[in-house]
Amino acid sequence: VQLQASGGGLVRTGDSLTLSCAASGLSPSGMAWFRQVPGKEREFVAHVIWNSRHTYYADSVKGRFTISRDNAKSTVYLQMNNLKPEDTAVYYCAARGNPRMITSSIGTQTSYHYWGQGTLVTVSS
């Protein structure tokens, strides 16, 4: 199983950016994005249930970020709009196989079986 994340970069406040994470060797039940700032704990950003496409978001990104998935490409996306300096972080994609996790666990790192390598997003003010 391999998760390959891409799409990070340097942008300005208010800009948009889309991250991608391609999963190989896995039929996920759900995928998510987390982010981490050096010196801080990794935090949950968004989750998509693979079959239903139902989505969940952290309050800090709700209304600005959109998670989606392409089943044919086994890829999850994170469309990030109206970016702020506080969104600066390394973004990690995560995936879970079966069985599907319970909803209350989607923000817990240990609920995910596989992790990508991370992609850096820097938002300048």
Spans where pLDDT lies below 50 across 5 or more residues: none
- Proportion of beta-strand residues: over 45%
What integer is the average pLDDT?
Answer: 96
Q: Termini, distance in Å?
A: 37 Å
Order of helices and strands: EEEEEEEEEEE
Q: Mind describing the biggest β-sheet?
A: 7 strands, mixed
> Which value, in Å, is the CA radius of gyration?
13 Å
Number of helical stretches of at least 4 residues: 0
Query: Which class of secondary structure composition applies to the elements?
Result: mainly beta
Number of strands: 11
Q: Helix share of residues?
A: under 10%
Overall morphology: globular
Description:
Helix content is 0%, strand content 50%. The chain has 125 residues and is mostly beta strands. The strands form two sheets. Strands 2, 4, 5, 6, 9, 10 and 11 form a seven-stranded mixed beta sheet that branches. Strands 1-3-8-7 form a four-stranded antiparallel beta sheet, with no helix packed on it. The mean pLDDT is 96.
Which helices and strands, and how do they pair?
Blueprint: E1 2-6, E2 9-12, E3 17-24, E4 30-36, E5 43-49, E6 55-57, E7 65-70, E8 75-80, E9 89-96, E10 114-115, E11 119-124
Parallel strand pairs: 2-11
Antiparallel strand pairs: 1-3, 3-8, 4-5, 4-9, 5-6, 7-8, 9-10, 9-11
Features:
globular; single chain; mainly beta; 125 residues; four-stranded antiparallel β-sheet
